[in-house]
Automatic annotation (TrEMBL):
InterPro entries: AAA+_ATPase, P-loop_NTPase. It comes from the Bacteria. SUPFAM superfamilies: P-loop containing nucleoside triphosphate hydrolases (SSF52540). Residues 40-150 form the AAA+ ATPase domain. SMART domains: AAA. One of its GO terms (molecular function) is DNA replication origin binding. One of its GO terms (cellular component) is plasma membrane. This is DnaA protein. GO terms for biological process: DNA replication initiation.
Length: 219
């Protein structure tokens, strides 16, 4: 936290719990995760593209609720929740054989006043669920979405990705990248990785010149 705060974060980006960056692109999702008592039927689907911070938000929710987390692909038929709040990650990958277990988990939490948070890159209506009773309950789930990053979030994300690699980029480089890469979390992660690898391989500094060379090679 102390190292990251040496950055000059872009205007419009706030630091939330656990250094989660809040801007217009995710403010509603952040607020929803902090107020589970407002969720209809105490269940929520958190939807967003890969790298958008869904897992980070889920961990913030877990820290507040003292709940437990599991991957949808790992949901076993005999699963018994150990907490009243449960997070099921990557619901789009729920195995066909785990649908009945998910159905019982959903009903158990609903009947006991528990809370269910599900994350996915797709909204519930697109989850390939064959069990009709589960499909209907998932389709009725309230959804909050994280969209692609705005300029403020994209700049903060690029600086955070560099900071994770112990790299302090110049503001001019961050602004240059923000204007030239695809506006997505995946694109930000990709260009930071490319720059780090290229700088190490070529013995060069990470700067606008190197970024320009890499971006010019992209289709």
């Amino acid at each position: 936290m102390s190292d990251q705060l040496t950055f000059d974060w872009p205007t419009g980006v706030a630091l939330g719990p656990d250094d989660f960056f809040v801007s217009d692109t995710n403010a509603r999702a952040f607020t929803m995760l902090c107020t589970p008592e407002a969720w209809p039927d105490r269940k929520l689907a958190l939807v967003g593209p890969p790298g958008s911070g869904k897992s980070h938000l889920a961990r913030i929710f877990l820290a507040q609720s003292e709940g437990q987390m599991l991957q949808a692909k790992d949901l076993a038929a005999d699963f018994q929740p150990e907490a009243t709040s449960v997070v099921v990650e990557d619901m789009e990958h729920l195995p066909r054989g785990s649908e009945e277990a998910m159905f019982h988990l959903h009903n158990h939490l609903r009947n006991t006043g528990g809370t269910l948070l599900m994350t996915s890159s797709e909204p519930p209506a697109r989850w390939q669920i064959a069990l009709p009773d589960l499909a209907s309950r998932m389709s009725a789930t309230n959804v909050t979405q994280i969209g692609n990053p705005d300029d403020a979030m994209l700049q903060a994300l690029i600086m955070k990705l560099f900071a994770d690699r112990q790299i302090a980029p110049k503001p001019a480089l961050v602004q240059y990248l923000t204007l030239r890469i695809e506006r997505s979390f995946a694109a930000a992660a990709d260009i930071v990785d490319q720059l780090d690898r290229a700088a190490l391989a070529q013995g060069r500094k990470i700067n606008k010149s190197l970024a320009r060379e890499l971006l010019d090679k992209q289709p």
